[in-house]
């Protein structure tokens, strides 16, 4: 017999705080423009909190929508709502409060100079999340593209809240990287269920072979698009003139993508992308990449 968790713990877990790491994307605007200062940093932090609340509200609504199928899933049935540790009315009230609070916070942040579109971006994210739960998730290919689009909205929000110009390279790199993660997750879900009838209807439209081909294509495109971005990014002035030094980060991105593929195919973490942050080599690679990006973008301000 499985012991039920305390009510507060169950509510906290239903928010999926382990997924909040995805919202770090709102700092992309600062990271790739070198605007490392407290004024921009506090707005980006506010945006991060807004999107943490919005994403948690989306997870709650999605859990209610998938309640019956989650109860039949070998892993998802242990979540607080399918396990009966919290009730549907409580979840819906919490989702409504989080949505109202986060959109209110987005409105406050959008009132500072130039950040008008942040509120609109946050509202669009909430609407697309709702659309995903009730419609897009059942459409093959559209489902993973919608997930990738939600990542793009996070990156866009990080740009408009500062505000800085939205680089098309940030959009395409984020889209491809998120699509890569989403396809790996679909592959994990499909293989996990094996010969059993998929609890998610859209999984019947996929096959491991199809997903493997999609992953290979998107993997190559992700590396290529990031590489092209580094060669066209704003140059850094050095003693010998101006050079696109951001290209020095390319090996770290290649290693990160290949290491994640290894973890997906050999360690089976595709269903929980956040588990990459438990891999020592991946953590070290990400830290070195972040350090190099920081040094290079800061050099632009000197």
Notes on the protein architecture:
With 302 residues, the protein is mostly helical. It folds into two domains: 20-166, Tetracycline Repressor, domain 2, CATH 1.10.357; 167-193 and 204-302. Helices cover 64% and strands 2% of the residues. It contains eleven helices and two strands, in the order αααααααααββαα. The protein has helices spanning 7-14, 28-31, 38-65, 67-71, 88-109, 116-134, 142-160, 168-193, 208-232, 250-266, 280-299; strands spanning 236-238, 241-243. It has a two-stranded antiparallel ribbon. The longest helix is centred in the N-terminal third of the chain and has 28 residues, at 38-65. The radius of gyration is 20 Å and the shape is globular. The termini are far apart. The relative contact order is 0.10. Residues 236-241 have low confidence and may be disordered.
Task: Describe the secondary-structure layout.
Layout: H1 7-14, H2 28-31, H3 38-65, H4 67-71, H5 88-109, H6 116-134, H7 142-160, H8 168-193, H9 208-232, E1 236-238, E2 241-243, H10 250-266, H11 280-299
Antiparallel strand pairs: 1-2
Number of helices: 11
- Taking all residues together, what is the mean pLDDT? 88
Q: How is the largest sheet built, in terms of strand order? A: 1-2
How would a textbook summarize the main sheet?
2 strands, antiparallel
Please tell me how large the radius of gyration is: 20 Å
Number of strands: 2
Helices and strands, in order, run as: HHHHHHHHHEEHH
CATH superfamily of the largest domain: UbiA prenyltransferase
CATH architecture of the largest domain: Orthogonal Bundle
Overall structural class, as computed from helix and strand content, comes to mainly alpha
Low-confidence segments: 236-241
Shape label: globular
Number of domains: 2
C-alpha end-to-end distance = 63 Å
What is the share of helical residues? Answer: 55-70%
What proportion strand? under 5%
- Specify the CATH class of the largest domain: Mainly Alpha
Q: Looking at CATH, which topology of the largest domain would you report?
A: Tetracycline Repressor, domain 2
